Amino acid sequence: MTDQEIITLIEERREHKALVKLYRYESRVSTLIKKYGGSKEDAQDVFQDALLILCKNVWAGDFKLTSKLDTYLYGVCFNLWRTALKSKKGKEINLPDEYRLEDQNELEALIAKEGKIKQVEEVLKKLGDPCLKLLQLFYYQAKKIKEIMQEMKYKTENTVKVQKYKCIERAKKMIAKV
């Protein structure tokens, strides 16, 4: 379903069908809110508020979508959470530079980057258990080759290194196809 079809459903007051499609963006918002000290419940509240804002803006009759719909929702959620934090703390929030967005293009680029990260995550899941476990141990848990050898019951450290290389090459090929 395209962004415009979703907007049309909301305009026609058939928003339930549209909202079901829009909930696929909730996990991104949850990640954002948690990054800035919020809880899962905070993220759900912010996302629901953003959906209400979207519906009200569409129903007002003069809504023009100038970006992707997920970009719009992410921006609304970002601003809602920043406002909520500001009112809680009573002061301006200093965001790290990588989260300061000067214009709509930066927000779209950020969302595109997140999309690519999701694609890589999906590819890693498709690699299968031995490769996925090996890469997680090495990159995410920062375990040494010797520790991986013992944990995964490989015979030598070289075997771990070769297997890691093969897994990375397989992942690169799968990512190139995406």
Automatic annotation (TrEMBL):
InterPro entries: RNA_pol_sigma-70-like, RNA_pol_sigma-70_dom, RNA_pol_sigma70_r2, RNA_pol_sigma_r2, WH-like_DNA-bd_sf. Keywords: Sigma factor, Transcription, Transcription regulation. The keyword Transcription applies. It comes from the Bacteria. GO terms for biological process: DNA-templated transcription initiation. It holds the Pfam family Sigma70_r2. Residues 24-89 form the RNA polymerase sigma-70 region domain. GO terms for molecular function: sigma factor activity. Transmembrane segments: none annotated. This is RNA polymerase sigma-70 region 2 domain-containing protein. It comes from Parvicella tangerina. The lineage of its organism: Bacteria, Pseudomonadati, Bacteroidota, Flavobacteriia, Flavobacteriales.
